[in-house]
Amino acid sequence: MDTERHPFEPFLPQGARMLFLGSFPPQPHRWCMPFYYPNWINDFWRIMGLIHFGDKDHFCVTSEKRFDEALIRQFCADEGLAFYDTACEVRRLKDNASDAFLEVVTPTDIPALLRQIPTCHALITTGEKATGIVAEHFGCHMPAVGEYLEIDGIRFWRMPSSSRAYPLALEKKADFYRRLFV
């Protein structure tokens, strides 16, 4: 069975204070942009729009069913939000985007990412699989959803999945993510 390498470079803007780690991007045919959380039906950018602008569609080009990649990149750079995933190489056990059928072949060297962004004070996972990989890497337990633990002076936060497959309303997900920005 073939493996798949991560399609994006880490997004590590200067002065990044938060590193978001998901599991791995969906297959390219599901993307509406070549950047993190690229699936139109994933709610990550709607959550950020609600939290920061009071508008779930702030980053959306709704008429084209895509996100505004340039606006997102500028927002992330301005806010100090970095992105990558917990796997650099995976094997898809089924032809879908589900984490349940994602086998991690090569995990990400998380400390190497953090060394590149020394101003980072929060590592945030967006879903159970990513949280489990980080917890295993650091030899700690998984925090409860919406909670964090301290690891070497960095807060390791666990957020709910932004996937619509995760059964929680958008506004409730935003309530969890809002805790990161207070």
Explained architecture:
It is a single chain. The protein has helices at 44-53, 69-79, 110-116, 128-138, 170-178, and strands at 4-5, 18-22, 60-61, 66-67, 81-85, 87-92, 102-107, 122-126, 148-151, 154-159. The strands form three sheets. It has a five-stranded mixed beta sheet with strand order 5-2-8-10-9, with helices on both faces. By secondary structure, the chain is α/β, with parallel strands linked by helices. The relative contact order is 0.20. The protein starts with a strand and ends with a helix. It has a single domain (4-29, 75-181), classed as Uracil-DNA glycosylase-like domain (Uracil-DNA Glycosylase, subunit E), CATH 3.40.470. Helices cover 26% and strands 24% of the residues.
Walk me through the topology.
Blueprint: E1 4-5, E2 18-22, H1 44-53, E3 60-61, E4 66-67, H2 69-79, E5 81-85, E6 87-92, E7 102-107, H3 110-116, E8 122-126, H4 128-138, E9 148-151, E10 154-159, H5 170-178
Parallel strand pairs: 2-5, 2-8, 8-10
Antiparallel strand pairs: 1-6, 3-4, 6-7, 9-10
Helix pairs in contact: 1-5
